[in-house]
């Protein structure tokens, strides 16, 4: 079958021989309107928006009538015009507009809603408008757990505010909430004293849940069109006219020259049989779905899906007509079993797949099939791009609670380095929000560098967190612990959060740390007793919902404590050589000195008894293996490479079978870049810590690793890393073809900009005999088409996988620019070889924040993957 992949002559035409059938109603267009919402959500609820500088400014929170768009509009505090004011003399427009393109620095979705607005009010307003599409919301959280709220609290403290000024109230945590959308952006609000935050949260949560439920029954094109509809329907007519069609095509990344817009529009409208008056009025949502379908179908290139359909099921049916449908029997035998290798599938499984496909809202065209035992080629294409057909095996992606009862040493644990930083290691801001972001990204081992701060008015010690002796800003240790406690309140079944404490504090401040940990976390803080320190380590299941400390336990006066800083000293000289600024050199010299003396700090008994994992200096593996299991090591990435190349590297694997170890980035990485985690994972190292503030390739590889097991942050290590003695992992040969893409967004999911010119880099990250191996290959560039790009699917990429237990295949989609250095990242997916399925598969793409919200929710690749040989055949 695969040998038949070709382009050119001999293929059936993709052009329709006659107009498509009349469109049917697509309910997803109005899927949220059934949700009952109080009228105040449409006319506006008084709130205060927190801007980038932490300043509160008056605004109105509104919903569009279709409930798909949330807008925060400007308002001005003014006691006049009482006939148009709400409570407190607040000026509000009589009709609320949610159709305003956002100019906010928070980067709203810039989507439109419905209505009109008093322009005089806008002219007097002091804040910009934010709009957020419901489909782009990642989560809704109560409280003040974002950077902008942190800045607002700092601002109030700095100004010494104790009461409202000019109508702007003080922060009230019980009135605050945030929308986190498109992976990392936040919209931070506080309702006024008369507002009901809980009602807003309830309505928003209900809307988001209904959206998530409804989108499962629509095709990608329908979901994409719904996402951009309010943005391209400029005149709010609920139709798309000739001019708006050009904007629609640009938004879906399919370029047609502007001079051709009219001809394309008129030709398509005539194909639908629309008269002149109807054509002038515009295309309905359902008709635009057909337009997208036609745009994808009518191409001079042979579509891979079309070729696959004919290759597997035959181009002609028994009656000699061109095949438009396929039976359940053929789908099972010729596709699932023969091509996909899913030999466990049954006819009952196929019936469920077919039933789901028939429920989907797709473009209603000539080849529509209503027979329950058949599907059309459009149904087949929808299945190929679906999550059900993902290259990442759904069985490996599922959460497996039965696997969570082994000792902690038998897991890879999602870990972060310098979790508090928002940027580089020297001058960036520290933020509590970074802990929340890391937790929601799946991280379960978080780092805190704690130092002596000042004292409050009562003389109490205030521990602070920052990158010591640098120009990074400082945050309170207490605020971080409160954020962790809030996360556990919302997610009580989370597997243990491990805090890696780099403790630089004097004894009074350590005592304050211990007191804050106990008072804030209460029963959620795991306190080991002497009996629990004997024998094997506890399991994730035993520590579920708990916070566990990694730091120091007193073991006598001769104790040699190992810190990340100590291990980094071998990198520090190199780091200083690459930093040229005098002030930075001074900072790094001070930092190096502080690290050399940090081990002289004594441990407070109150803190030590709360600590489970005790870091110790490495001398030899023979000595380390004999230490209690709660003893552990920390190694910089350079030492990971050194140990992995040594002749007794397998002893580190043996150590990691009963003990924990942690790897972290080299001190030379002042820019907070990351190293590949593959080599450390291959040794069984559990905590391979990365800089979460830097969304680079290594972090995306980490995302792929911990996508397994329901993104719980804990993945059971492969059996080869738990066997005694030296065990060589399996190897295989793999063939990959990149066939096509679907609904690829612009970089960053932006709504404006040129159509993209996408290409794909497919890379294998692997290791062999203690060395990292990386191999990459690129597809050709497809110009001006991110909606339905077709790459040269005759190109095969061959990879030799040396360590199938650890290796990861990485797909990255880029937008080609004039210079390779200026190419822009669009989306990616990382899939462990051990979690992959063969066959024709979908690759669900993620943005740089490892989310699929907004414009990334429907982005995917279609690939062919075959494993050619096993270890025995090599």
Automatic annotation (TrEMBL):
Species per Swiss-Prot/TrEMBL record: Cyclotella atomus
EC number(s) given by UniProt: 3.1.4.11
Disordered: annotated span: 1-25
Annotated ranges, domain C2: 717-847
Chain ranges of the PI-PLC Y-box domain: 610-721
Domain of life the protein comes from: Eukaryota
GO molecular function: phosphatidylinositol-4,5-bisphosphate phospholipase C activity
Residue ranges of every copy of the EF-hand domain listed in the record: 220-255
Pfam families for the chain: C2 (PF00168), PI-PLC-X (PF00388), PI-PLC-Y (PF00387)
InterPro entries, A to Z: C2_dom (IPR000008), C2_domain_sf (IPR035892), EF-hand-dom_pair (IPR011992), EF_Hand_1_Ca_BS (IPR018247), EF_hand_dom (IPR002048), PH-like_dom_sf (IPR011993), PI-PLC_fam (IPR001192), PLC-like_Pdiesterase_TIM-brl (IPR017946)
Enzyme class: hydrolase
UniProt-recorded name of the protein: Phosphoinositide phospholipase C
Keyword Calcium: yes
PANTHER family associated with the record: 1-PHOSPHATIDYLINOSITOL 4,5-BISPHOSPHATE PHOSPHODIESTERASE BETA-4 (PTHR10336:SF36), PHOSPHOINOSITIDE-SPECIFIC PHOSPHOLIPASE C FAMILY PROTEIN (PTHR10336)
Keyword Calcium among record annotations: yes
BP terms from Gene Ontology: lipid catabolic process; signal transduction
Record field: transmembrane: none
